[in-house]
Amino acid sequence: MKLMAIGMAALMAACADGGERMASEAEMKMSHVHMGHVLTGWQDTPDQMGLLPTAQAEAEVAGQHAGFAASRPDDLDWMRLHVVHILHAVDPSIEPQGPGLGYGVRRAVQGVAQHVRFAADSEDASDNVKLHAMHVETSAGNVVVWSERIVALGQQVRTASSAAEAAPLVVEIETLTQAILVGTDANGDGTITWEQSEGGLAQAAQHMQFMQEGEGMA
Prior knowledge:
elongated
């Protein structure tokens, strides 16, 4: 009976916590709730992190292993090993084992794009939210494209018959992982913006910060 009482108390406490969280979200603007999903917490990410921090953490793993792979362009087995790790961090549905979080850059950043769109489409969305949501969504879309290219290149490395065949693919993968992390100056004007083919996760994070500041949430 004592164990049952303890269990019931724990259950009631958990329900109370859940109820408070639901009430708190209900009191918030829906646009702000979706911003929170991007920045601070989402239900199915590792440790329920925000979707953007999850994408950034996975991209850091991919970038690290891209550097490892590119460091030995004459060693096919070495490049293959680290490309497997990159694939895991980018899309664990392609490679389920590896050093990443098991969520993947691609899935996380697709969630970022989805939830900033939800934020912008909310009835209570301000002009500030709508403006920066477009910027974040564009950068997130770039990351999706680059992630898909990495997956395609990684599969080619896996089937490469020589180091000479794999090495240029690995170089491109490394370049793409850096673009995912910090963006790329696609038009050569000396700056990296949120725009198509330029913005990466750093630019998405920057414009989420602008969004927060405009909402008085920073």
